[in-house]
Design goal:
This protein is an alpha+beta fold. It has 4 domains: about 80 residues, Uridine Diphospho-n-acetylenolpyruvylglucosamine Reductase, domain 2 (2-Layer Sandwich); about 120 residues, Uridine Diphospho-n-acetylenolpyruvylglucosamine Reductase, domain 3; about 110 residues, 2-Layer Sandwich (Alpha-Beta Plaits); about 80 residues, Alpha-Beta Plaits, CATH 3.30.70. Helix content is about 35%, strand content about 20%. It contains 15 helices and 19 strands. The chain is globular and about 75 Å long. The structure holds flavin-adenine dinucleotide. The site of flavin-adenine dinucleotide has 36 residues, from strand 3, helix 5 and strand 10.
Length: about 450
């Protein structure tokens, strides 16, 4: 008699195994509710690397797909399950294993929540910069697997810039270490770099060594209201030319301001077509100089109102419109989040095209943007259950991808390909590069068990 995958998983010592639909349905999908998903056959919540390895070996034996999961905050369907899959949730591997103050390094487990990690570093006066807006929930493993960006990457870079070394369970159920702890090192292919951003398709990350920075001073927040997206775009160009390095440079457009007003009655949309929010975390006099320069750039570009915070409380208040924008849009309906990234010089033009696309498809479209990186998040909102509106939003989504490519940009700046952008990836990559992607997948996941059907071009 042949054994089932569940029977084999049951033999793994002390493994936390969920099989009732009541518990497994909570692991069926991430935050990309538009992508296909199903309730998995089982969910495992390993506590050790050895358990992860044994689960992968079991899945190879039974030809069972493995869907690795952090916190499920992904926005591209990367953690969405299929009915025949085992979900490997890393939520119980959530410890800081080591803080090496001398070398400014930390070694952590993948299920550690980003904000919890940052909080644990404060007592050492150390800082882990990558700060996706999902940092209160998303995990370091998920951040590594998506190469997450965030607010401060305009100055400090993205997750991959901080990853020194990874422990990974491979597609042959072996445990390997990729990369190294040293500041430099070029021995062999950069397999660490390959694993970063691989969206659970090449292996399961079970430990992460990251580099750290000293804790920066409290930032000063600077805001500018603009009558047009073009003026806001000009301000960003002026900031770029000035040589100032803001630690955050975000845009919130009128559609999002209206949503925030409808929720919190802040009177923002009546005053601006777009708000730019910048921050300086430079210390002392150089910080004051940076703030003055940011204000000058805003004013020279035609800002109708500018302000700079004088204390931490004011700083948070000025930042509120950005923080509230996404949840405010979610209150209006089902949100399909785009994530294109275009050259900075094309941002104002592309923002204008996005509005036209929303109008043409009769879909509510509003944009938040990591403006300083040219990373735009048009949010397409449809009433729950309105299938016709859903189809119109999907058509708008596809057109936005085309606009990004024609502007010399990319289909995803930070959220990844998952299920939602495979077609877009196929359009972005040349046939030869697409073949290289499939070759890497076949080499590192020879049994084809890791997140099949995801993150590769079609
Ligand atoms: C409100 C909100 C704001 C957001 N803001 C940002 C932002 O500013 N910047 C940004 O980049 N993203 C943002 N995101 C998207 C999302 O939070 C990130 O993609 C995040 O990195 C996902 O982490 P997670 O732990 O939730 O991973 P999950 O969603 O669980 O998984 C994401 C992908 O990684 C894989 N994976 C997870 N853990 C591992 C592991 N240990 N080993 C191998 N593969 C693994 C999964 O299979 C999946 O493909 C936002 C999402 C929300 C809901």
């Amino acid at each position: 008699m042949t054994t089932t995958i569940i029977e084999t998983l049951e033999t793994i010592d002390d493994l936390d195994l969920l099989i009732s639909a009541d518990s497994t349905s909570a692991y069926a999908h991430d935050r990309a509710v538009w992508a296909a998903y199903d309730v998995p056959v089982a969910v495992v919540r390993p506590r050790t690397t050895e358990q992860v390895r044994a689960v992968v070996a079991a899945c190879i034996e039974h030809h069972t797909p493995v869907v690795t999961r952090g916190a499920g905050t992904g926005l591209s369907g990367g953690a969405n399950a299929t009915a025949d899959a085992v979900v490997v949730s890393l939520e119980e591997m959530d410890q800081v294993l080591e803080v090496d103050v001398e070398h400014r390094l930390a070694r952590v487990q993948p299920g550690l929540v980003n904000d919890n990690f940052r909080a644990a570093l404060v007592e050492h006066d150390l800082w882990y910069p990558p700060d996706p807006a999902s940092s209160p929930w998303s995990t370091i493993g998920g951040n590594v697997a998506t190469n997450a960006g965030g607010m401060c990457c305009v100055k400090y870079g993205v997750t991959g810039d901080y990853v020194r070394e990874l422990e990974v369970v491979t597609g042959t159920a072996e445990v390997v270490r990729l990369g190294r702890r040293t500041a430099k090192g070029v021995a062999g292919y950069d397999l660490r770099g390959l694993m970063v951003g691989s969206e659970g398709t090449l292996g399961i990350v079970t430990e992460v060594v990251v580099k750290l920075r000293p804790l920066p001073p409290e930032p000063t927040t600077v805001i500018g209201n603009f009558d047009s997206l073009e003026d806001a775009g000009r301000a960003v160009a002026l900031i770029g030319a000035s040589g100032v390095a803001p630690s955050l440079l975000e845009l919130v457009d009128r559609g999002c301001l209206e949503a925030v007003d409808a929720w919190r009655n802040m009177g923002l949309a009546s005053e601006a077509d777009a708000v730019l929010i910048a921050r300086s975390d430079a210390p002392g006099a150089s910080g004051e100089q940076e703030v003055a320069e940011l204000l000058r750039c805003f004013e020279e570009a035609g800002a109708t109102y500018t302000a700079a915070s004088t204390d931490a409380q004011e700083s948070e208040a000025l930042y509120a419109a950005r923080q509230l924008a996404f949840p405010a849009m979610e209150r209006l309906g089902v949100v399909l989040t785009e994530d294109i990234c275009v050259p900075l010089s094309r941002v104002p033009d592309v923002l204008g095209q996005l509005r036209a696309i929303g109008d043409r498809h009769d879909v509510k479209l509003a944009t938040i943007a990591h403006e300083g990186d040219g990373n735009l998040h048009p949010l397409l909102v449809t009433p729950p259950g309105d299938e016709a509106a859903g189809l119109r939003a999907q058509a708008a989504f596809d057109e936005i991808i085309q606009v990004a490519l024609e502007a010399g940009g990319t289909v995803t700046g930070e959220h990844g390909i998952g299920l939602l952008k495979r077609d877009g990836l196929g359009r972005e990559l040349s046939p030869a590069v697409a073949r290289m992607h499939h070759a890497v997948k076949a080499a590192l996941d020879p049994h084809g068990i890791f997140n099949p059907g995801k993150a590769l071009p079609i």
